[in-house]
Amino acid sequence: MKSIVPVELIVSRIVLFRGEKVLIDRDLAELYEVSTKVLNQAVKRNMRRFPLDFMFQLTKGERNELVTNCDRFKTLKHSSVLPKAFTEQGVAMLSSVLSSDRAVEVNIAVMRAFVHLRRMVLSHADLARRLTEFEERMEEHDEHITAIFEAIRQLMTPADRPKKKIGFEVKEPKAIYGKSKR
C-alpha cells in the first residue's frame, strides 16, 4: 500500500533534541495540511494527552540551533512563539486529537518512518559491532599477516648469486682426424 507521504520525506524532517528524535510542530502541520496554529490549538485543548516525554517546547537556544541548522526554519528566527517538538509517542497521540482522514494516514506514515529510522540505527550499530570484531580478529592474526608480507618481500628481492642459464649451449664441433669442419 502506497503511503500518502513518502517515508523518506518524514525521515528527513526528524531532528534530534534532548536525546530524542522529534518532529517539529511546523513540519507536522505541513504534513497534516493544517496551519501550525490549528495543530497547536488542538494540542492545547488536550494537554493531558501530551506529557513531557510526548511533547515539549523548545527553548530559545534550541530554536536558534534549529534555525541555524535547518534552512526551512529560518522564518522562526524572529518569532516570539517557541516551536513544539513531538516524540514518536506524541505523534501517535496526535492521531487522537486530529481526527481527519489525512491525519490518520499521515500518522501511519510517521510511525513507519520512525520504525524505518530505528532499523537504520540498529543496522549501523550491527555494522559497527562487526567491524570491531573484525579488527580484533586481525590483531590476533597480525603476526601471521606480517610473516606473509615478509615472505612476499623476500620473493620479490633479487638474489645475489649468479643465475643459471636455462636451455642448452651450442659448442663448436670437435676436429675429426685433425681437421675441423666449417
Detailed description of the structure:
This protein starts with 6 loop residues before the first helix and ends in a 26-residue tail after the last helix. Strand 1 and strand 2 form a beta hairpin. Helix 1 packs across helix 6, helix 2 packs across helix 3 and helix 5 runs antiparallel to helix 6. The protein has a domain of 122 residues. The protein has a 4-stranded antiparallel beta sheet. The mean pLDDT is 80. Helices cover 55% and strands 8% of the residues. With 182 residues, it is an alpha+beta fold. The longest helix is centred in the middle third of the chain and has 40 residues. It is built from 7 helices and 4 strands, in the order H-E-E-H-H-E-H-E-H-H-H.
Keyword list:
182 residues, alpha+beta, four-stranded antiparallel β-sheet, 7 helices
Write the layout of secondary structure elements.
Blueprint: H1 7-13, E1 15-17, E2 20-24, H2 25-32, H3 36-45, E3 55-57, H4 60-69, E4 84-86, H5 88-97, H6 101-140, H7 142-156
Antiparallel strand pairs: 1-2, 2-4, 3-4
